[in-house]
Write a structure and sequence with these properties.
The radius of gyration is 21 Å and the shape is elongated. It has a four-stranded antiparallel β-sheet. A hairpin with a 6-residue loop joins strand 2 and strand 3. The relative contact order is 0.17. By secondary structure, it is of the alpha+beta class.
Length: 167
């Protein structure tokens, strides 16, 4: 798929806002009829622009009340060590995101668990056993100020409806 045009960006923005919308609702928001809107969405799915659809779950309401950002350092950075570490991270359900970074840490992990005892068990049972880990520095999240899932797509904001003139 080539560059995204204004209609594609509007469709993506609407899907990020609410992926349960009907094709008719998406089409209206993007200024298209239903068939072209549906075709564009299918093309973006095929091109891998749209990776999937999911439900947003309130983590605290399902018992994951503690969020921790863990900075991890590895002993070596050989291709095999990095691959093994990243595979082990991918297999750990408590690790919900992992970023390879510059700076003091090699990786930053976001870990979600029910409580501090569960995090301690995660550290000893998982984190310290990850391949190549030499150091883990933990920061407990006191409050999530912003946790956005929508990507900031340029041009994806819907224009306000035109004002009607009073006669």
């Amino acid at each position: 798929m080539n560059q995204l045009d204004r209609h594609d960006v509007l469709l993506l923005s609407e899907l990020q806002r609410d992926s349960r919308q009907t094709v008719q609702q998406l089409a209206a928001a993007a200024g298209l009829s239903a068939t072209p809107a549906w075709k564009r969405v299918k093309e973006m799915e095929s091109a891998g622009i749209i990776l999937g659809y999911t439900a947003l779950v309130d983590r605290e309401k399902v018992g994951l009340t503690l969020a921790v950002l863990a900075e991890v350092n590895l002993t070596r950075h050989s291709e095999d060590d990095v691959r093994r570490f990243e595979e082990a991270v991918a297999a750990s359900p408590q690790i919900v995101s992992c970023y390879a970074t510059t700076g003091q840490a090699d990786y930053v992990l976001k870990v979600l668990v029910p409580d501090i005892k569960s995090y301690e068990a995660f550290l000893h049972g998982t984190a310290f056993k990850l391949p190549g880990v030499t150091h883990v520095r933990s920061s407990v999240v006191l409050k999530e100020v912003k946790a956005e899932t929508r990507l900031p797509l340029a041009g994806g904001e819907r224009a306000p409806a035109p004002r009607r003139r009073r006669s």
